[in-house]
Amino acid sequence: MVDNRYATALVIGSVLSLLATVYLSVAVGTQHWYQYSSPPVKREGSNASELSEIKEFINGEFDEKVYSDTIFRLNGTLGLWWRCIQVPGQTHWFKEPDPKMETQCVSFTLPQQFNPKYKYPGNHNSEEDLLRTYLWRCQFLLPLVSLALVFLSGLVGVCACLCRSFTPTLGVGVLHLLAGLCTLGSVCCFLAGIDLLHQYTTPPEGVEGSLGWSLYLALISFPLQMMAAALFMWAARSHRKNYTRMTAYRVA
């Protein structure tokens, strides 16, 4: 029989784990990890070049220098799997002083995620930047590992319930602890990669960058996972100590 305190801890931990999973899943699937605010673009004489830049961003070959410069200039956003820019709507926008803007996004394919990064973005003949390469790979792999660990902990918890055993709860807590560390590692890798990118490719004057709400969702999921891990491990250890004392009392 499980004490009410332990049952309450398990319920609260499960709710926190569910919230963390939802927040992290939304963060991984959205593009607002980092966003740029660009000054208004003067339309005179720049229509053709801007159209060419947009087409290159959407349909051109994958090139870090090209898409970074486009994101800087066109109020772009960057996520783990998406890069987006603000483009004029399907109107005669070159005749309008203030055309309606729409968001155009392009996803990173899996092979593109594993492409090497270079010390001079856009110059594939330059030396590979191993630090940026592995930071980029870690930033999208770690959240997937985190979600996989939470899913695995859920399976362990279900098996524990079916077997009516409290012992696997400690393992559930450890898995949540590892998942939280993976989530925090992903955010740190992303921020470090953005900082290094700005060192090699400086945004134009007047362009301001800021953290997006997707990154904040990932940050929120980290303490939720850690609190869930603490509750699961506390419940497991406390129940074990209580069970040991009761067993010793019966023997005596």
Description:
With 252 residues, the protein is of the alpha+beta class. The chain is 63% helix and 10% strand. A hairpin with a 3-residue loop joins β2 and β3 (82-88). α1 packs antiparallel against α5 (130-163), α1 runs antiparallel to α7 (213-251) and α5 (130-163) runs antiparallel to α6 (169-200). The protein is elongated.
Characteristics of this structure?
about 250 residues, alpha+beta, five-stranded antiparallel beta sheet
Q: State the low-pLDDT regions, or none.
A: none
Structural class: alpha+beta
Largest sheet: number of strands, sense, barrel closure:
5 strands, antiparallel
SSE succession: HEHHEEEHHHEH
Backbone shape: elongated
Q: What kind of oligomer do you see?
A: single chain
Provide the gyration radius in Å.
24 Å
Number of strands: 5
User: What is the terminal separation in angstroms?
Assistant: 21 Å
- The total count of helices amounts to 7
| Content of β-strand | 5-15%
Strand order, sheet with most strands: 4-3-2-1-5
The helix fraction, in percent, is 55-70%
- Mean pLDDT, to the nearest integer, reads 82
Describe how the helices and strands are arranged.
Layout lengths: L3 H26 L4 E4 L9 H13 L4 H10 L3 E2 L3 E7 L12 E7 L2 H4 L16 H34 L5 H32 L7 E4 L1 H39 L1
